[in-house]
TrEMBL record:
Keyword Disulfide bond: yes
InterPro entries recorded: SCO1/SenC, Thioredoxin-like_sf, Thioredoxin_domain
Coiled coil (residue ranges): none
Keyword Metal-binding carried by entry: yes
Protein name as catalogued: Photosynthetic protein synthase I
A Pfam family per the record: SCO1-SenC
Record-linked CDD domains: SCO
Length: 188
């Protein structure tokens, strides 16, 4: 028989509003990180997770001059939206730059528009970038390359449910089909 505090975990599970997920990615339900961001879009407006309530939100951190990982992640996001069919409009894709020194609002808009006009590029100051990366446990580092630099960075996509709660991380190697299956669970 459970008494005292032993009942508390069972009660918390029973009261949880999020249904269990069986995903190809990683179930982050109840995570204590990745709660929010407050960054600017190319339109000059500041955005937070609350601005996308009612939609699933997929976030990827990267930079516009990335030679392979970032364009591959955004191309996969296009494919995911196509696979969602009639539910495609229920997914908002956000690209958060980790290189605000070079990624101007105009560059971000052109970059995300090249993949899908509904995708949104967000940026902040160097301090804001550091803060949001820390909140989402994203690794990034400027790496000198001759007279310029590149950026090393994590290659995960994060997905929020329609209530603005972080629920899934999608590894870079996960197929678009598997990602779409995972995301459909948040749209049901």
């Amino acid at each position: 028989m459970l008494t005292g505090l032993g009942v508390l975990p069972l009660m918390l599970v029973a009261c949880s509003k999020e249904k269990p997920l069986v995903v190809h990615g990683k179930d982050l339900t109840g995570a204590s990180f990745g709660r929010d961001f407050n960054l600017q879009g190319p339109d000059g407006k500041r955005y937070t997770v609350k601005d996308f309530k009612g939609k699933a939100l997929m976030i990827f951190f990267g930079f516009t001059q990335c030679p392979d990982v970032c364009p591959t992640a955004l191309a996969r996001a296009v494919e995911i939206k196509n696979l969602l069919g009639e539910d495609a409009d229920k997914l908002q894709v956000i690209f958060i730059t980790i290189d605000p020194e070079r990624d101007t609002p105009e560059m971000l808009a052109a970059y995300t528009d090249a993949f899908d006009p509904s995708f949104l590029g967000l940026y902040g100051t160097l301090d804001e970038t550091q803060t949001v990366a820390k909140e989402f446990k994203i690794y990034y580092k400027k790496v000198p390359t001759g007279s310029s630099y590149t950026m090393d960075h994590s290659a995960l996509s994060y997905v929020f449910d329609t209530n603005g709660k972080l629920r899934i991380s999608l590894p870079h190697a996960q197929s678009a089909e598997q990602c779409a299956e995972d995301i459909r669970q948040l749209l049901a």
